[in-house]
Structure formats: C-alpha cells, structure tokens
Amino acid sequence: MATSSEIYVELVELSGHVVAKGAWSVTLRANCLYQSAHLAKPGRRCRLLQGTWEITPFTPLAALDLTSGTCIQVVWLSSSAADSRFSYSNALVAIKADGSVVTWGDADFGSNSSAVAPLLTEGVVQVCGTNGAFAAIKADGSVVTWGGADYGGNSSAVAPLLTDGVVQICGTDSAFAAIKADGSVATWGDAEYGGNSSAVAPLLTEGVVQVCGTSFAFAAIKADGSVVTWGDADYGGNSLAFAPLLKEGVVQVCGTSVAFAAIKADGSVVTWGVAEYGGNSLAVAPLLKEGVVQVCGTSGAFAAIKADGSVVTWGNADYGGNSLAVAPLLKEGVVQACGTNGAFAAIKADGSVVTWGDADFGSNSSAVAPLLTEGVVQVCGTNGAFAAIKADGSVVTWGGADYGGNSAAVAPLLTDGVVQVRGNNSAFAAIKADGSVVTWGDAEYGGNSSAVAPLLMDGVVQVC
User: Fold this and answer.
1) pTM, rounded to two decimals
2) Which domains occur in the chain, in start order?
3) Which one-letter DSSP state was computed for residue 77?
4) By its UniProt entry, which InterPro entries does this protein fall under (predicted)?
5) Cβ neighbours for 216, distance < 8 A, ≥ 6 positions apart
6) Using CB atoms within 10 A as the burial measure, which of 63, 114, 169, 283 is most buried?
7) 276-303 tens-digit pLDDT
C-alpha cells in the first residue's frame, strides 16, 4: 500500500495487460515508471499516457492526477533505438519539452515543415517518419503530417480519422499506419506501400495494439495475439501461408526491408516475406522454437536474442544473416542488438559490443575496438555506420564516414553527457543531458544543423 509520501500506479498496455505496478515516492520523476516498463520489454520504447496527457520521463510523479484512477496506459512504439532498422529518411525532427518541433536536413524529404508550422509550436508528443514525410501525434491525439505527398505527407483523405484518439504511428517507406485508442487503424500514403488497408479493413476496426512495417508492408498485432498484414504481398503484406501460426500468441513483430519475424508468447518465431532476406528461417528453425525475447533486422537479415543471451541469425549473409565469424561471442550475454543496412551490433551484459555483417555498412569496428570492450549502454545505426553511447555519456562511432561513422568534427561535444542518439539514412543526432543536440554525418541530410542551431541548444527530449 502507498503511504502519504508515495503514489500507487499500474502500468497497463492497450490490451489490458498490467506491465508493472507498485508504489513510488512522490519526490521522483516519471523516468522510474519508464524504467519499470522497460524491464518488462527490454529494448522497446514506449509512451506513457494518462488519458490524453503525455507523461514524459521528466514529469514529477507529484504532478500525476490519480483522482480518476491509478492506471497509466503504456503504448509500445513499433521500434526502438535498439531494435529498429535504420531510417532511409534524409531529414531529422526534434521534439522539445514544450511540445514544439524543429526540422532540418533535405527539404525534399520532410525537413521543410513550414506549411504546418503553426500546428507544431506546442503539444507534439511523438513523431514518426517514412522515407520522405513525417507524422506527428499531438497530446490531444490529433495528427499533423508534412513532406512529400507520395510518402504520406498528405493525410487529407483520412483527416477526419486523425483529429483525435491516435496513440501510435508507424511507417513503411511511403505510407503510415496510425493506431487509435479504440484499437482501430487508419492508413494513408502510397497504396502499394501499405497506405491502402481496405482489403483487411474489417480486421482493423478494433483490438490493434501494435503495428510494424517493412519497406513495403505493415503487420498489426491484435489484443488476442493474432496478426493482420497488408501492403505489397511479395514483401510481407501476404501472410496467408502462415495464417495458422499467426492466429494467436504473437507478442512482437519486427521487419527487414522485405520480410517479417513474429515472436510468440512461447518464445517461438514465425517468419514470412522474401525468403532470402529473412522470410525463410528453416535453416535455424530448431533454434527458434522457444526462448526468443527480441528480434531486430537489417535490410536483409534478422538477429534473434534468446533468453539465455545467445543470438540466432538468418537471412542474406551479406546483410548479417551469417554470424559464424563471431559465433563464440554470441553464445551468451547479449542483451540488445541494432542493425544498419547490412550489419549488426550487439551489446553484451558486460557492456562490450560485437559486430558482424558487411564491412561497408559498419560490421568492422576494429578501429575503435578498445573503446567497445566495456561500458556501452546503447547502439544506434544509420545506413552504413554505428554510434554507441557509453555509461559515462561519451559516444563512439564507426563505419562509413559518409554515413556518420566519423564524428571527429564534433568529438569535443561527445565526450560526456549524451543520453540518446538517433540516426537517419546518413546522419546522427545526439541529445545531451542539458537538452542540446549534436549532429554529424552527411551535412545535406541532417548532419549539419547550423540552420536551426539556436533551437537545438536546450529543451530537446526526442529526435526522429
């Protein structure tokens, strides 16, 4: 029971499942609630909502209004800094603590948000991108879109569905899917990339709790553990061949560019899509029957982390599907993995990092190996490079210089204080503890943020 100096809350998923519950001191901030949620699903990002109000990690627990109940809604985002494929986008977006948005990078890929600027001055709580557009969820559950119309930047066709109630958005290369609080899904953008979900519309009217995308298709998990897919049939949009295995029990879905992998509650994995790029896992099927707790992908391969800390890989060998060269290092202790276009980086419990895949896409970390033997807490990728945050807040980068693998130009700013790193196709953005942002990589595609530098000096809480 909570005392007068404590509050009691329950963290509840959209499905109604209680993720965590307990009493916390009112002197704390909500980062303690986020930590509890992340213990339930390591490596996953989430949002915490109280009604339509966004609870950020910086929210004082004393500010929570529990007069109408102790339940706080957990919305699992479709990707995380640890388990998502890199983004092909050539622009970056920052959300500030006041809910305003700052954009920079290539104007043709969504960096120019001037057409909707008045709608982005406050209240934004989440941003998601396709290759050439962005969609922002506001605290009232409405959605604002901008960028190329062919990439989902024009949502006028579904505007009435996006005025309220949206809690999560996911993107393919050229389309968006939004989950609403009632479990329904709205889609827009290029029809061939999942923007048209009419073929499965009756299955998307309620009960959806998560959506994940490949480059061309979407997969939605429903509260009963079933999966609904749509988009390009050849690239994951058609899962009929595996329908019996996807009727129940699915708890997570991850994609490469053209294939999906679904983790079931019993720890088994089901795959579909382009066979040579991860859709066919028969070669490792005995290892995927149980115990899998996380899956992440590159463009053409998957890596599954098991409960014992071992890693199983499959898909195209050139994209990280063959990890034999580092197999002894992946037998135990792995807690997180991340992919670029063609390489993986795995963090072990001792803070060391193991890399494999195509050397042109970041698999060769030998130049910084002494810096990756301990203390790494997060790894993020662009198309061809990685950035690792260490426990002391410093950052280590490697891979293609044109993709952010060389951070020498901003090295003095990356020696301490970094709390989050995000990458797009060719550039990285690091958020520091003081809310400032440091960028590097391809200047045209977000590596140079000088045009918006005054807006990135403080107050930034998220970058997409």
Assistant:
1) 0.85
2) 6-76 (3.10.20.90), 77-238 (2.130.10.30), 365-464 (2.130.10.30)
3) -
4) Ran_GTPase-activating (IPR051553), RCC1/BLIP-II (IPR009091)
5) 172, 173, 192, 193, 194, 231, 232, 234, 235, 236, 237, 257, 258
6) 169
7) 999 999 999 999 999 998 999 999 999 9
